[in-house]
Each structure stands twice: as structure tokens, then as C-alpha cells.
Amino acid sequence: MTFHNDIAGTAALSICESLLLALNDHKILPEAEIVGVLRDAAAAHENAPTGDKDELNAAVAALINGILAGGNSVRRR
């Protein structure tokens, strides 16, 4: 992955996390729904068909699961 892709990916992740926080703060989506979105995203990568992107899918799933474990995308009350 190029440096440019790292920057774009990091920016996209930060924006998405901020959006999830805003959706929860404004009571548009409850915490359970946000957690569900993240779990669905992780599962999509965990259950992706095997192929040449296995390592990428595993890394993405691990990152999303880490976000879930850390509570970064929801303000735990």
C-alpha cells in the first residue's frame, strides 16, 4: 500500500468514527445500532471469499474488532 493510500485510509477512518459519534450524540442511532454496524463490517471481511486479499481482509477485520473493543466509535456511558 502506498503512503497516499495510508493517508486516505486514515482520514476515512477518522471521518467515519466522527460520524458514528455524531449519530449517537444526536440520538439518531443508538449505541447498539452503531456496534451492530461495526460488527457487520468486521464480519464482511472475516467471511470474505478466500483469494489474494486474505491478509488485507484479516487486517481490516482485526482493526474493526479493535475499534469495537476500545469503544472508539461510541461514547460509552
The number of distinct helices, counting runs of at least 4 residues, comes to: 3
Helix/strand-derived category reads mainly alpha
| pLDDT averaged over residues | 90
Percent strand equals under 5%
Shape: globular
Biggest sheet overview: none
**Secondary structure tally: strands:** 0
Could you tell me the radius of gyration in angstroms? 14 Å
N to C succession of SSEs: HHH
Helix content: over 70%
Q: Tell me the domain tally.
A: 1
Low-confidence stretches: none
End-to-end Cα distance, whole Å, is 37 Å
Description:
This protein has helices at residues 3-25, 31-46, 54-70. It has one domain. The chain is mainly alpha-helical and 77 residues long. The N and C termini lie far apart (37 Å).
Describe the structure concisely for a colleague:
The chain has helices spanning 3-25, 31-46, 54-70. The chain is an all-alpha fold and 77 residues long. Helix 2 packs antiparallel against helix 3 (54-70).
SSE topology sketch:
Elements: H1 3-25, H2 31-46, H3 54-70
Helix pairs in contact: 2-3
Index terms:
single chain; 77 residues
